[in-house]
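Protocol step 4 of 6: structure prediction from sequence.
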Amino acid sequence: MLKVRLPLGACARSWKSVRMASCGMARRNPLENKVALVTASTDGIGFAIARRLAQDGAHVVVSSRKQQNVDRAVAALQGEGLSVSGTVCHVGKAEDREQLVATAVKLHGGVDILVSNAAVNPFFGSLMDVTEEVWDKILDINVKATALLTKAVVPEMAKRGGGSIVIVSSIAAYRPFPSLGPYNVSKTALLGLTKSLAVELAEWNVRVNCLAPGLIKTSFSRMLWEDQARQESIKAAMQIKRIGKPEECAGVVSFLCSEDASYITGETVVVAGGTLSHL
């Protein structure tokens, strides 16, 4: 058998090349000059996604329901030298959705990326106690608003030859969180919405994928991780026995929006520490 021995220096250089490629160091700015809209992006997972997209070269428009939150997020990210602007957007309001898209077009000439991250959860308890008003609010914001925002943004993507949409669902779509019934249902619905949109939008070269985070340490998920017993119960279902960080979701979204994912659509990527994820 012929054995080939590489000099030690050559081995080190080869390994360094592999390592750089795996962590994105070999190709900087994979989203250079792309224009990205990220809803609910002034805190938590949304903020981490906005930061990562901007770090990877995109011009990012952040949004939130409150002007002071938008101002704070924009100042923080611009302070890091990133190309970020912002506008108020309540995704449940048609005029706000239109304004979000119009802001990107006015500032940057179009839209290439949409990350639909906005969600609400105003209820904690038994499904049998959920009122019609609660159902309407959760489904309006978590599901319907995503579909309508997609409808508003696709014509702008089509003008630029295509685009990428990432819908943020949750591990709750697969493994329901206790006492969060309507929220769980809404997140499962987003898996179906992703599949349907991917089929319909392919003709415009618009890819649609989904992110399903597990228990991530954010203010939104506080009710799940502040209670130690509940946190331990959730972690017991994980292979990686810890709570995730928002940044661990952001890199996946950037990948899905990049040309590295150009042959991926209609898929859901679960970032949940190895929690089982099957419908």
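Step 5 (inspection) to follow. The chain has nine helices and seven strands.
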